[in-house]
């Protein structure tokens, strides 16, 4: 695939790039620094949380491992906000939605400096979180969380190395908008606020958000893959393996977690009535 000039890797002006820039292809030397920055930024948030969270009484009462999880969830939340912003910016632009009559201008092959930068930063986060989850295993999450993170890192790495399939990753990034609600639920629970109205409101928002972003969005992803099936012949066997192998893993895990959220939601709604009965 031909390259059409070089643009700064961290350029945020994706919406105004000319059509010939839709096929930007970054070298490893360009996105590896973004991955390193993503890991360093995540670690910095972890350290800042460990430094200033002791100002909170709820944090001081936690056992050491819970404090580590508190700090870990801080940079998890930061990452989710970033990739959600990236996904919204992506879909607000016309980069992957603008039709073209050129045979080699397939939507699934389009990439820009912005997508490379976003994926690099996200990869850095996932690699750091995998390292921490492995080191503290299973305190920061069981096997299912490790599987999720490893699959996510592989999907992002494939998109970075090949320079293709960025639209699929961005669709998956939308699902990360639920992470702040998951983490807030944990913070409220471990701060003794399970009976508060905020815990209930967050639980409802988590249920609706998960159903929308983690279930329905993935159904849309599968439809999008099917709708662009005639373009997939340009993918290598490795790319096809990642495309057809990794999303089902995410979807199964999301359904598993959704069932757990649903059970919690039912207990929240019918629990008191059931006890009175």
Please describe what this structure looks like.
With 277 residues, the chain is mainly alpha-helical. Helix content is 69%, strand content 0%. The chain has helices spanning 28-52, 57-60, 64-92, 113-135, 143-162, 166-173, 179-189, 197-227, 237-276. The chain is globular, with a radius of gyration of 20 Å.
Quick tags:
277 residues; mainly alpha; 9 helices; disordered N terminus
Could you estimate the helical fraction of the residues in percent? 55-70%
The total strand number stands at 0
Q: What structural class results from the helix and strand content?
A: mainly alpha
Oligomerization: single chain
Largest sheet: none
The tally of domains stands at: 1
- Computed Rg: 20 Å
Low-pLDDT sequence parts: 1-19
Morphology: globular
Per DSSP, the total helix count is 9
**Chain-averaged pLDDT:** 88
Q: β content, as a range?
A: under 5%
Pfam families: TRAM_LAG1_CLN8
Transmembrane segments: 31-53, 74-95, 107-128, 135-161, 167-188, 200-226, 246-270
Keywords: Membrane, Transmembrane, Transmembrane helix
Main location: membrane
Give me a quick take on this structure.
By secondary structure, the protein is mainly α. It contains 9 helices and no strands.
């Amino acid at each position: 695939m031909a390259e059409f000039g070089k643009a700064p890797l961290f350029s945020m002006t994706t919406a105004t790039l000319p059509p010939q820039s839709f096929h930007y292809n970054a070298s490893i030397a360009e996105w590896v620094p973004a991955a390193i920055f993503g890991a360093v930024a995540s670690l910095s948030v972890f350290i800042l949380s460990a430094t200033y969270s002791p100002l909170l009484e709820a944090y001081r009462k936690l056992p050491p491992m819970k404090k580590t999880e508190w700090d870990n969830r801080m940079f998890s939340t930061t990452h989710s906000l970033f990739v959600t912003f990236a996904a919204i910016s992506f879909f607000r632009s016309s980069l992957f939605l603008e039709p073209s009559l050129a045979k080699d201008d397939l939507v699934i092959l389009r990439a820009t400096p912005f997508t490379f930068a976003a994926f690099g930063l996200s990869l850095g986060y996932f690699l750091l979180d995998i390292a921490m989850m492995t080191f503290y295993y299973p305190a920061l999450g069981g096997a299912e969380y490790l599987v999720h993170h490893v699959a996510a890192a592989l999907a992002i790495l494939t998109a970075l190395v090949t320079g293709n399939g960025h639209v699929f990753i961005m669709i998956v990034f939308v699902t990360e908008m639920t992470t702040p609600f998951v983490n807030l639920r944990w913070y409220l629970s471990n701060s003794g606020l399970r009976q508060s109205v905020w815990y209930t409101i967050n639980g409802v928002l988590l249920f609706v958000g998960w159903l929308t972003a983690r279930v329905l969005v993935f159904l849309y992803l599968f439809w999008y893959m099917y709708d662009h099936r005639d373009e997939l012949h340009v993918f290598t066997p490795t790319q096809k393996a990642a495309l057809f192998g990794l999303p089902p893993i995410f979807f199964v895990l999301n359904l598993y977690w959704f069932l757990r959220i649903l059970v919690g939601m039912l207990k929240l709604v019918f629990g008191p009535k059931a006890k009175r009965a």
